[in-house]
Amino acid sequence: VWSNCLQVIKENIGEQSYKTWFEPIRPISLRDSVLTIQVPSQFFYEWLEEHYVSLLKKVIYQELGSEGRLEYSIIVDRGNDSNKPQTVNIPTKKIPAAVVNSYKPEQSFIKSPFESKTIDRNFLNSQLNPSYSFENYIEGDCNRLARSAGYAVANKPGTTSFNPLMVYGGVGLGKTHLVQAIGNHIKNSNPDKFVLYVSSEKFVNQFIESVKTNNVQDFANFYLLVDILIIDDVQFLSGKDKTQEMFFHIFNHLHQSGKQIVMTSDCPPRDLKGLEERLLSRFKWGLTADLQSPDFETRMAIIQKKMQSDGIDIPDNVVEYLAYSVDTNVRELEGVLISLIAQSSLNRKEIDLELAKQALKHIIEDVETEVNLDFIQKTVAEYFQVSLDSLKAKTRKKEIVIARQVAMYFAKEFTSHSLKSIGYHFGGRDHSTVIHSVQTVSDMIDTDKKFKVSIQELQKKFKSKAG
Ligand code: ADP
Ligand code: MG
């Protein structure tokens, strides 16, 4: 009976839809006009019911008459609770004759370009930029977890527990680079796998377009072909309920078939407003890893690597200067490097400290109103009546040591510099010296009333400047 049904279904829908939705179905039993079929997942069942219910009713009617009924047996993935698949039986309602007779093939069954022939996967474009790789993705404290999880996924897509892998972090911190590197790595080692990179914005637009042109089915079918789905900036799905629903189905289907999903977002999943709870809960199935602002050392390494790959020589003191001046994100750092290179070639000048300061002028001016390290050092030096240079010098004179420690303490409180970077600004001291200074000042505030007042006065100055 079922194979007769399939015959009719095959004639009514596209080849790809048929392969995707009907070939995986197993007939289980036929008892008293009730045909039971087994489907691989809850999602499968929902999809069939949503899109093929009238077609199914028609074929059941043809084969089993008006008493005919269809029952689904669903293989339920119980996740961690049990390894054995369980089944749930869902009977369909009795078929009203009116529905049966009114079946017409729906618009969405129009053949898609992918359905008219067997798919040649070579034609599927991954949308990856080959210049993003792990080799040129500098590792540092700021990205270690995300990078190594990404590397594990790249080597064993779909089989690690990092599925989905969700990478989040602020703008310009390397999310797109990292997930594209994963995609490129997989593509290079498994050319037969269909890796797809898509921005969430494009995903939304494609979906809206498919609704307009009645091609939702093709849209879904296309995404269900994907072996590794990389979807960038999922915060963009926020508030787009219909698209989210589609993504939810695609996500479930791919995940259940052991396909790898990689996502990025500009904030942690718990802060993704306007995303459905059921989606968010699925994001937590795998691993969530963040990208932090690059620390001083990573910034140094990034500058060195970029200059090296461009074949440009740059003195160490300029690398250091740039690394500590631009501490926001990698994209901005790259921007500064580009303008530095441009100025060097325009003025036919070698890159040196002076040129670097010139190139950074506009950025430094931007932060004039902030409580930055320079301002803290100047203010503290004045307050304790020591010279600015002495804060950065080796001298261990008592009053200078105290002023230096206080300045470090405020640098920690009012700037986003890492301990390492603060140490660098104070004559190249290491981060443990900074920790010790901060601790010493805290202790003195607790024990020395006069000292406490001084600190409060300074604090007021910084707070009023910070606004
Ligand atoms: P996001 O997607 O988080 O906004 P991108 O991935 O676009 O950031 O990164 C911005 C720029 O910084 C890109 O040119 C990228 O190559 C570079 N970049 C980011 N992180 C690193 C890193 N760890 N090593 C080398 N380059 C990086
Ligand atoms: Mg990006």
From TrEMBL:
- Cite the record's note on assembly: Oligomerizes as a right-handed, spiral filament on DNA at oriC.
The record's region (Domain IV, binds dsDNA) falls at 345-467
Q: What residue stretches are annotated with the AAA+ ATPase domain? A: 161-291
Under the heading InterPro entries, the entry gives: AAA+_ATPase (IPR003593), Chromosome_initiator_DnaA (IPR001957), Chromosome_initiator_DnaA-like (IPR020591), Chromosome_initiator_DnaA_CS (IPR018312), DnaA_C (IPR013159), DnaA_dom (IPR013317), DnaA_N_dom (IPR024633), DnaA_N_sf (IPR038454)
Q: Which family would the database say this protein is a member of?
A: Belongs to the DnaA family.
Task: Write the gene name.
Answer: dnaA
Every Chromosomal replication initiator DnaA C-terminal domain range = 372-441
- Principal subcellular localisation of the protein: cytoplasm
Q: Give the species.
A: Pontibacter silvestris
Q: Which residues form the signal peptide?
A: none
Annotated ATP binding lies at 172, 174-176
Protein name as catalogued: Chromosomal replication initiator protein DnaA
Q: Segment Domain I, interacts with DnaA modulators: which positions?
A: 1-92
What function does the entry list? Plays an essential role in the initiation and regulation of chromosomal replication. ATP-DnaA binds to the origin of replication (oriC) to initiate formation of the DNA replication initiation complex once per cell cycle. Binds the DnaA box (a 9 base pair repeat at the origin) and separates the double-stranded (ds)DNA. Forms a right-handed helical filament on oriC DNA; dsDNA binds to the exterior of the filament while single-stranded (ss)DNA is stabiized in the filament's interior.
Entry-linked SMART domains: AAA, Bac_DnaA_C
What keywords tag this UniProt record? Answer: ATP-binding, Cytoplasm, DNA replication, DNA-binding, Lipid-binding, Nucleotide-binding
Q: Where in the cell is it found?
A: Cytoplasm
Superkingdom, according to UniProt? Bacteria
According to the UniProt entry, the note on domains is:
Domain I is involved in oligomerization and binding regulators, domain II is flexibile and of varying length in different bacteria, domain III forms the AAA+ region, while domain IV binds dsDNA.
